[in-house]
Design goal:
Radius of gyration of chain A: 18 Å
Structural class of chain A: alpha/beta
CATH architecture of chain A: 3-Layer(aba) Sandwich
Largest interface: A-B, 50 and 51 residues
CATH class of chain A: Alpha Beta
Cofactor (chains A, B): Zn(2+); FAD
Keywords (chains A, B): Cytoplasm, FAD, Flavoprotein, Metal-binding, Oxidoreductase, Phosphoprotein, Zinc
Distance between the termini of chain A: 36 Å
Shape of chain A: globular
Catalytic activity (chains A, B): 1-(beta-D-ribofuranosyl)-1,4-dihydronicotinamide + a quinone + H(+) = beta-nicotinamide D-riboside + a quinol
CATH superfamily of chain A: Flavodoxin domain
Number of helices of chain A: 7
Largest sheet of chain A: 6 strands, parallel
Oligomer: homodimer
Strand content of chain A: 5-15%
EC number (chains A, B): 1.10.5.1
Subunit structure (chains A, B): Homodimer.
Amino acid sequence: SGKKVLIVYAHQEPKSFNGSLLKIAVEELTKQGCSVTVSDLYAMQFEPRATRNDIVGRLHNSEAFNYGVETWEAYKRGGLSKDLVEEQKKVQEADLLIFQFPLFWFNMPAILKGWMDRVLVQGFAYDLSKAYDGGLLQDKLSLFSFTTGGGREMYSKEGIGGDIRYVLWPMQHGIMHFCGVKVLEPHICYAPENVSEEKRKEMLTAWSQRLKTLWKEEPIDCSLEWYFK
Amino acid sequence: SGKKVLIVYAHQEPKSFNGSLLKIAVEELTKQGCSVTVSDLYAMQFEPRATRNDIVGRLHNSEAFNYGVETWEAYKRGGLSKDLVEEQKKVQEADLLIFQFPLFWFNMPAILKGWMDRVLVQGFAYDLSKAYDGGLLQDKLSLFSFTTGGGREMYSKEGIGGDIRYVLWPMQHGIMHFCGVKVLEPHICYAPENVSEEKRKEMLTAWSQRLKTLWKEEPIDCSLEWYFK
């Protein structure tokens, strides 16, 4: 359909279940005529640490290093490091951002969190009074696709893991919504390591099927009610 | 009091407000007779990426790399990389873990998330049926001490940022409680960059005061009710 998709992928092993989900997404979306870009974070050895190295040249204030201020200033003068500029270009061009990863400690893996920390800097993704519905990354969609270790029954309102939506709040609302990006329903594969080969195949098929009609989906209402009602 | 404290600290700049909070904690706890160790993650250039490099020698299954399985196996045979073994030793010896960091995207900075991902491996911090109240890191306390960018009014049940406890769920419950570590009330300094110098000093004093009676505190009831009631 001519749409552009960026898949930010955080798994070390191409033969993993996450690797299969990635492969399916690339194939299905490409078949639809989308242009698909993959940021394979481990393969890229993507740097997750937010440091002075992210700023090329002189600092705004070299007396006391403030990462938020320095990256904001560097963004404005075109002085961010090359790896960040490249990721920002991919984000800028994308109509849809898909994040594919295994849930690690109720959260995304550090390498993916580092992508968020370093790529979505002030001036690029949001600004002083430009956040949430006014965030700078307008007219984009996002989708969190992940696998869990624990089973579905663990992640319920009464389960020890709580409603799975609780872990989505910081990611979907705190990051994507904050930047003005709309959020599609997450895609969650529960405990693929603990189910039968048949069940795993069903999960892969379900992902492929969902992608076929993805562009007809409405974003969720990314408000407190969706998460905690 | 002879207690051992590990402070895991994630800020790039010693002159920052987080740096001041760290300094206060080290001074006050040392004055009490505690033995204080600091893991200064940026200064250590701590590696946040969970990769094959964390396993010394042969892999359990080199056909398809599974980080969880490989680190578990490596832990059992004493084959984890040196930097992880050192951090695990510090955790093992500690009575109290303090995490000091700026909230970044409703969450901890990637470098600190990487510490969680890599240090708290299966076999060391939890095991198959040893999680939550049965987690392997018994008889330890933890305390999340962090600064925010947004003000206190933003983080309320009706505020756009939601109750601040929502962002604590994955950290306190999903990580510390999962490992059997008890959780003390978090210590939150709201928007230190946007308040007066006087207010900042008050915040530093409040932290110092709290630490004076820290060992008398009761852990929170780290259940769904505390976060979402």
